[in-house]
């Protein structure tokens, strides 16, 4: 028996670690996918920028797809990675309930705001941005 504070994906348990993003979310990886989302709807909020687009019926991918990006304006590599971790956590919590299948979402970090803003405020920002995009 493993202790309750043991990591979920330890080799002793035979279980695999949980994915970085929920199983209903597919992560965007190709630059072309990010560029398509950049040309679509935008919802700027205090903590980040949300870009969203509805995929064409001819595109094969199903489900909700999400991407994360932070430019060097956000800071050094440590700051960018921290900002992206916070954006991934937001996506895991809110996109499964508010996102729509057949849509692509890209969360773009903002300098100082993505890292410095309270997480509850970031959650409220994402909910407001999702309502704006779909409303």
From TrEMBL:
The gene name reads rnpA
Has keyword Translocase? no
What is one GO biological process annotated to this record?
tRNA 5'-leader removal
Documented EC number(s): 3.1.26.5
Q: What catalytic activity is recorded? A: Endonucleolytic cleavage of RNA, removing 5'-extranucleotides from tRNA precursor
Question: What organism is this sequence from?
Answer: Pararhodobacter aggregans
One GO MF term on file is: ribonuclease P activity
Entry's HAMAP family?
A: RNase_P
Task: Describe the protein's quaternary organization and the partners it interacts with.
Answer: Consists of a catalytic RNA component (M1 or rnpB) and a protein subunit.
GO (cellular component) term, any one: ribonuclease P complex
Similarity remark: Belongs to the RnpA family.
Q: Which keywords accompany this UniProt record?
A: Endonuclease, Hydrolase, Nuclease, RNA-binding, tRNA processing
Q: Which Pfam families match?
A: Ribonuclease_P
Q: Which InterPro entries match?
A: Ribosomal_Su5_D2-typ_SF, Ribsml_uS5_D2-typ_fold_subgr, RNase_P, RNase_P_CS
Cite the PANTHER family for this sequence: RIBONUCLEASE P PROTEIN COMPONENT (PTHR33992:SF1)
The entry's function note states:
RNaseP catalyzes the removal of the 5'-leader sequence from pre-tRNA to produce the mature 5'-terminus. It can also cleave other RNA substrates such as 4.5S RNA. The protein component plays an auxiliary but essential role in vivo by binding to the 5'-leader sequence and broadening the substrate specificity of the ribozyme.
The UniProt entry, under NCBIfam families, shows: rnpA (TIGR00188)
Is ATP-binding among the key words of this record?
no
UniProt name for this protein: Ribonuclease P protein component
